[in-house]
Amino acid sequence: MDTIDEAAAKSSRPVTSEKAIVKKSRAPWLWALFGGLSLLIVAGFASFYYFVSKPATAPVHQLAEALSGVFGTEVTVNGSTAVLEKSEIGELALVQRKTQAITKFETTWLGSNKLLIVRGDFLVKAGFDLSEGGQWGILEGKVNGALPKGKVLSCEPIGDLEIYYAESGTLNRLSPQDHATAFNYLKNQARRDAERSDIGKEAEQVLLRRINDRLSGELDEVKWKERLP
Fold first, then answer.
1. 121 contacts 159 by C-beta, under 8 angstroms
2. Residue 28's CB: how many other CB atoms inside 10 A?
3. How many whole angstroms separate alpha carbon 100 and alpha carbon 121?
4. How far apart are CA 136 and CA 219, in angstroms?
5. What are the CA-CA distances from residue 54 to residues 37, 44, 139 (Å)?
6. 10-residue block means of pLDDT along the chain (229 residues)?
7. What whole-number distance in Å separates Cα of residue 29 and Cα of residue 36?
């Protein structure tokens, strides 16, 4: 049992109070800073895309869509270039004409002549061979790439070919083989005449007109910087 003096000594001792120290976490501030920086980066990329990148690439995308619609096949965009891949796509006929051809087949044997003059109507189709593909970009307001060259795609007879004049020699008689040969000459003549005409250039004009129509005023009228020889 404590005496009075011991109790007084105990009561006179200093009383210390323990305080709990609570450390505030920095995680919310770090997440807030990270989120703010992320938003700034996203906003920066978005601004670059809409105000710099997109306006620069939009004409190429528009051109690719127009070419795809006209060619009837896929034209993709690779960077700043519209690309039509090489493949067995086939041909695109844009212009057709009816024409007439006439040719003479004549041979001489032992002084004896035979003569055939044949004629016929033909349907000529002109357009483009798309199997080689192509690449086009926009440079200084013009299409930078080779303009496909319009060409004769087919020249087929309409109806039967006609024998306009036939004459057999005394010794050199006409035969069915002569008729077949004369008709082949006529078909070749019709194609040569078509290739010498302006039907290829007409197909090129139709191509440009259709591309411009599909662009619908989104770009200035298409002007090709280069073309095939």
1. yes
2. 9
3. 4
4. 15
5. 24, 14, 16
6. 49 50 55 60 47 53 86 85 82 92 85 87 93 80 78 92 82 84 92 94 90 69 52
7. 11
| CA 57 remoteness from chain centre | 15
At residue 2, what are phi and psi to the nearest 5 degrees?
Answer: -75, 140
Residue type, 158: I
**Nearest CA-CA partner of 69 in 217, 224, 195, 215:** 215
Rg of the chain, C-alpha, whole Å: 42
DSSP codes, 91-142: EEEEEEEEEEEEEEEEEEETTEEEEEEEEEEEEEEEEEE-TT-EEEEEETTE
- Residues 146, 163: Cα–Cα separation, whole Å: 44
Q: Is 65 exposed, middle or buried (0-12, 13-18, 19+ CB in 10 A)?
A: middle
Per DSSP, helices labelled H in the chain are 4-11, 27-48, 54-71, 176-196, 199-215
Write out the two tokens for 75.
Answer: 């034209």
Are 163 and 179 in contact by the 8 Å Cβ rule? The answer is yes
* pLDDT score, position 49: 40
d(CA 54, CA 59) in angstroms, rounded, equals 9
Residues ≥6 apart with Cβ < 8 Å to 40: none
User: What is the spatial distance between Cα 45 and Cα 47, in angstroms, rounded to a whole number?
Assistant: 5
* Spatial separation of the C-alpha atoms in residues 119 and 122, rounded to whole Å: 10
Interhelix angle 54-71/199-215, rounded to 10 degrees, is 130
